Amino acid sequence: MIVLAGNTSIGYDDDGSGLPIALIHGFPHDRSLWAPQLGGLAAPCRAIALDVPGFGESSAPAATSMDRFADDVAAALGALGVGSAVIAGLSMGGYIALALWRRHPELVRALILAHTRAGPDDERTRASRMAMIAVVRERGPGAIADRLVAGMTGRTTRKKNPDLVEAVHRMMSRAPTAGIIGALTAMRDRIDSTPTLATIKVPTLVIVGDEDVFTPVSEAQALHRGITGSRLEVIEGAGHVSNLERPAAFNHVVSEFLTSLTSQ
Ligand code: MLT
Hints:
This protein is of the alpha/beta class. It has helices at residues 66-79, 92-103, 123-139, 141-152, 155-160, 162-173, 177-188, 194-197, 217-226, 242-245, 247-262, and strands at 2-5, 8-15, 19-24, 45-50, 85-90, 108-114, 204-209, 231-235. Strands 1-2-4-3-5-6-7-8 form an eight-stranded mixed β-sheet, sandwiched between helices. 47% of the residues are buried.
């Protein structure tokens, strides 16, 4: 389905009823990342999986930034009648979740920060973003998928579930070039969210996989240390997309967290 957020069309799936949880994917994914969570969370909730502008069925705005992504997500949720939601972001989706907290705190009932970090890009990562922009312009999204696929899942998944690795590669290969360039630019230019952590006053769950090489466990531990009262869950045998690699374990920790919110 499509909802209008100002001038941006946002693709979304909307499943269930109860406490709203907005699911924001990483790079270069689309909302199909969240297939195991739609209908898979035991806690009664309304799960809304959104395509980040430039991905899936969402249109690509001319200029992108984490703030712009956050504003578009906020506008989409508003258009869907959601006044506040648990904001769950995976990796780049986590960068957007932290921008949402800064810009639209009234919308954030609680946070789930999965496979993400607070810090900005260092010089090496910025250079790699620029290189990837050149690669996608020259060789298309498939070349980006080829470059990222090995790190996207953990070694256990690569050994035991090659079909999932293939599916993740297919998802990344269909990301539009404009979306990839927009997101790489937004990630390269994002601000340091470390000072934001001390301002977070809502319940927060931090999730990471013990085999994640893109955002190692140390990054999740830093988020956990920085956010007072947060909870940290390390999912064993999972890389950067534990929600796909170990969906039952991921859904279990998220459902427990959602239940803790509704029983407060
Ligand atoms: C993601 O999965 O969204 C990326 O690993 C984020 C990044 O490249 O910083």
